[in-house]
């Protein structure tokens, strides 16, 4: 075989191998991104539940306002419940919007950046919806009691203040634990706290994208 023919044959073989590699990479990427999309749909479903819960809380607060409460303690409890409902709706909307803005045709790096934004939004939503529950149960209980015709603060003020005090201590303890876990000398505690804060679906989505990145570099 002539040298030129041999070179030509090698070029053709190299082109075929490159094409097959590109096709294999595209199929692998599509499979992994499809799994990522499904995982994030589960996360979106959780935010829809939070959104509906927030709307339900607003309806709950609306029932209180329909009774036209006069006691300051009841009004303050109603305002707290109303603001909490608004915060739940807004934070869920922020996460859902971040998920919606992902373009799966972008580069893996850009999708990872978008996922990082979703994670920040999710943590924010978790703080807004979860952390206040240390003491938010007290205003909820006060509103519920008022809907039943009872001013809880007038009948049991110590219960309200103890509940708020214990809740405040619980919130401070949670914030301290988070700050304590940030120390680099406590990696196991750091991982445990991160796993508690970050949704499993987000960690799974990150793993899918990392697999694509490693496969591309190999």
The low-confidence runs, each spanning 5 or more residues with pLDDT under 50, are: none
Distance between the first and last residues' Cα: 34 Å
Number of strands: 0
- How many alpha or pi helices? 8
Largest sheet features? none
Subunit organisation of the chains: single chain
Would you write up a description of this structure?
By secondary structure, the protein is mostly helical. The protein has one domain. Helices cover 87% and strands 0% of the residues. The chain contains eight helices and no strands. Helix 1 runs parallel beside helix 4 (133-147), helix 2 (72-100) runs antiparallel to helix 3 and helix 2 crosses helix 4 (133-147). It is elongated and about 100 Å long. It starts with a helix and ends with a helix. The mean pLDDT is 80.
Concise synopsis of the structure shown:
With 218 residues, this protein is mostly helical. It contains 8 helices and no strands.
Question: Which properties best describe this structure?
Answer:
single chain, 218 residues, mainly alpha, 87% helix
Write the layout of secondary structure elements.
Elements: H1 3-66, H2 72-100, H3 108-130, H4 133-147, H5 152-155, H6 157-181, H7 187-197, H8 200-217
């Amino acid at each position: 075989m002539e040298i030129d023919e041999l070179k030509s044959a090698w070029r053709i073989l190299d082109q075929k191998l490159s094409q097959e590699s590109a096709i294999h990479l595209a199929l692998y990427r599509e499979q992994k991104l499809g799994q990522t999309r499904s995982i994030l749909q589960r996360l979106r479903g959780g935010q829809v539940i939070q959104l509906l819960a927030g709307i339900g809380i607003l309806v709950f607060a609306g029932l209180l306002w329909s009774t036209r409460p006069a006691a300051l303690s009841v009004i303050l409890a109603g305002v707290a419940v109303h603001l909490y409902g608004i915060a739940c709706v807004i934070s869920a909307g922020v996460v859902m919007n971040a998920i919606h803005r992902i373009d799966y045709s972008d580069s893996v790096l850009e999708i990872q950046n978008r996922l990082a934004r979703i994670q920040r939004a999710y943590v924010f939503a978790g703080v807004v919806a979860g952390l206040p529950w240390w003491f938010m149960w007290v205003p909820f209980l006060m509103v519920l009691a008022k809907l039943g015709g009872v001013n809880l603060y007038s009948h049991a003020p110590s219960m309200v203040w103890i509940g708020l005090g214990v809740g405040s201590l619980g919130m401070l303890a949670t914030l301290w634990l988070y700050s304590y876990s940030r120390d680099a000398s406590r990696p196991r505690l750091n991982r445990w706290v991160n796993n508690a804060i970050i949704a499993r679906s987000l960690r799974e989505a990150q793993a899918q994208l990392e697999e694509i990145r490693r496969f591309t570099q190999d």
